[in-house]
Every structure is written in structure tokens, then in C-alpha cells.
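[Meeting: bench + compute handoff]

Bench side (C.D.) handed over the final construct sequence. Compute side (W.E.) agreed to return the predicted structure before the next meeting so the bench team could plan truncations. Sequence as handed over:
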Amino acid sequence: MKKYTFLLIILTLITLLEPAMAQSRKPRYKRNIPIWYRSRFYTAVGGGVGVANYYGDLSPTPSLVSLDLKFTQPSFNVFVTHKFTPRITGRAELAYQRLRGDDNTSADPTKANSIGRYMRNLHFRNDIIELSATGLFDLFENNNPFFKRSTWSPYAFLGVGVIYSNPQAKTPSDNASGMWTSLRPLQTEGKSYSPAHIVVPFGLGVRYKASQRIDIGFEAGIRFTFTDYLDDVSGKYVDPNNLSSDLARTMADRNLEKFGAATGQSRKDQLQRIALANFGITDADTPSYDPFNPATAPSSGSRRGDPKDNDWYLTTGFHISYILVNVVQRPRFR
């Protein structure tokens, strides 16, 4: 009887321990997961080239869609993406965009709604460095492995990022030979602002399957920002005596310059025509104007920009990406 009892105990222990022993014999690595399953969610790396356009206080008109295509500037980016679900892909991106604006070139001195901007005569360039994290949402679900992905994949994207901004302008010159000078340290409106700003990128794009591992895409997006100082223009003229230096005073008020500093283009004829047509000022008189009320010279507290609307920029471009995925089936060990 003791012999049978002992045998029963041994069989019970074996029954209880067998699942744990079987689990311990499983390979540590997921060698048995099918290739098609592992290749549905993959990582890709890539880069792109495109163009950037600016909207802000130095746009041709106050209209929300007022862009000056003459100032279309280059943009470049590198990125890494990872597909998390059949529709959602995450992207980390580092990008460079140059933004530009110039009252002397963009504002039409013959139109009433832009005469003030022309006479204000401000300009800038800004080399933006952007780091962002973005979610890409495919409009059509794709649950296939990467090598059976759709030929065309339209998508929308939305994310958040941070930019480094450094607006610059040229010192006065009659032949565009002035030096580019950083404006933020000069505090041309009597206040300081940070070089770092939050942006919200959003837009639409489409990917084309060029080969088993390569996608080519086109994307158009807007960067909504939380700053009005991409162009160093936002609020009002300040008392020149409150500015820190002669250079700050020079860069803050460009109304009476006879040349566009960025282009070297003469402004004399246009200023005299505006003075005579609008205010009866003869050629012998020296025009002296408020950029938004040309009857008077800019004074402390008069309007220099529009603080109610933040600046933003538009990017469009092509990119290419390469899919990184291990499709080699590891051998099984028995």
C-alpha cells in the first residue's frame, strides 16, 4: 500500500511540474513567430528636401493666406519612423527651414492696404532648427507585412515640436552689402523673447511603394507656432531712448531709409510719389511717416506689428525612406 501511495505522489508531482518544465524548454527568442507577423510593424529611416514659406507681420497683406512666393526658401529633414498599428506610425524628425520676409519687396506701394508696410521697410531671415514627434494616421488600414503594403498610402499627421529661432536683418546699405545681424539680443521692441518655441505640425501626405523596402513620399504641412517673433516684429515702436544701443535704434525703425537694405533697391521715387499723392508733400520735403498712419512719424507707442496673430510657416517637400526589418528566419532548436 505504501508502494502505491509513493507512486501516486510521484505521478502527481510530474503532472504539476510538467507545464513549468515545458515552458522552461521554450527558446528565449521569438524564433517561431512567422515572418509575415513580425514584418507588419517595422522601423524605417529617411530624409527629404523641400521648401518653406512664412506668414506673419511681414507678409504682403494682413490676409491670413498672404504668402510671398518670391521668398520660398529651402528645407531639409531626416527622420526615423516606426509602425505601431495597421494605421498609426510614429515619427521622430530633425528639420531645417529658412524663412524670409521683406516689406520693401512684398508690400505693394500702390495699394492702400499695404502702403504702410512698404514704408515700414522691415525685413528678416530666420534659420529654423526643428525637432518634432509626430503621429501619422493612414487613411486606409494596412494589416499586411511590409512587402505587401499598399502601393499608395495617403495619410494625415499631427504632432508637437520645439524650434530654435534666430531672426536676423541687414544693417543699412545702398547696395545690399550690409551685414546680417541677430535681432533678438537688440530687443528692438523693448522686450526680450526666448529663442526656443513650441510648434504644432499638422498636414497631409502620401507614400508611394517604390520597391520592397523603399518608399517615396510627398508631404505638405503647416507649423503653427506659439510666438509672434519669428520675424522680430509683433507690437509697437518704443522710445528710442529706451533702446540699448545705436544699432538697436537703427534696426528698430527703417522708415526713412532710401534703400531696401536686403536688396539695395532704391525707395526714393516711391516715397516721394506716396508723399505727394497722399499728403501733398513736395519733392523738396523730407517724408516722415508712421508705417500704419503715414501722416506722422513713428513715435513711442505707434503700431509696428500685429500682436493678435502668431507667426506660422508652411513646408512642402519630397522624402525617401528605407525600411529596416529582419526577414531572415532563425533556425529552430529542438
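W.E. noted at the follow-up: Residues 1-8, 11-30, 287-296 have pLDDT under 50 and may be disordered. C.D. will use this when planning the next construct.
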